[in-house]
Fold:
Amino acid sequence: MKKSYVRYLNLALLIVLAILILIFLYIFKLSDFNKPIPDAITLPKEVQESIANLKPQKVLNVPILLYHYVEYVKDEGDTIRKSLNITPYMFEQEIKTLEDDGYTFVTMSDLADALDDKNNLPSKPVILTFDDGYRDFYTDVFPILKKYQVKAVAYIVPNFLNKPNNMDTWMLKEIAKSGLVEIGAHTMNHAYLSDLPLERVKYEVEESKKYLEKNLGIPVTTFAYPNGTFDNQIIDVVKKAGFKTAVTTINGIFAQDINRFFLYRIRPGARTGQSLLNLLDNPDAIKY
Ligand SMILES: [Zn+2]
Structure:
């Protein structure tokens, strides 16, 4: 009796151990699978070297905020979306914080014009940017922008349009016409540009501009590097395509004439109130 009890106990322990190993493997594999492609967070060395001896003629203090999803995430298992998401409530609080503190919401075109001495920016400018053209920009962000009459910039990937997770063409047309949202290009296919041959880079950059301009009937003059990756050659393609500014995912405030094609951005996350204002005053204090 006692012997068989021990045998069963051993068997039970083995089963528990096997289950634990399976759970471990499952979690490990899952987290690996769900890991977002890391954004570039520092200026590439060759770009750094190319500007090392340049003296900026114009320096502006314009925080550019970077958002992805703003929604109530329905699928609790969607860890990528959850990590990039803030709730519409939080977003509205952030807008209120910035408004109450005297910030004025401007666009990338306003920034380009200021860099070109064509206009002056208000005393406390801020730019809201949204990457990828997710559907929640139309359903959750746009109503808040309209409520507060706040301007923003949406970087669109044409070949993502009309997919379940992304805006339909009619939604894009509506936001583009609203006078509140500037449309920027984000390549045709959300391409990881540093991995592509030059011809392909040109296609992704130039076609996304042409496509959006043709379909929306507006000039598209700002560009966002997918995953923030770029180098001197890619910057050159973006410049020659006729863009006036380009944004990266590098953390910080860095709006000078010499780096208008690799502008830094700040991820506010769910910060509201004083912690958001502190971040805008000192973005380098936050490490990602
Ligand atoms: Zn993107």
User: Anything to note?
Assistant: The longest strand covers residues 125-131. Residues 35 and 50 are 32 Å apart (CA to CA). The chain has two domains: 1-35, 45-285. Residues 1-35 form one domain.
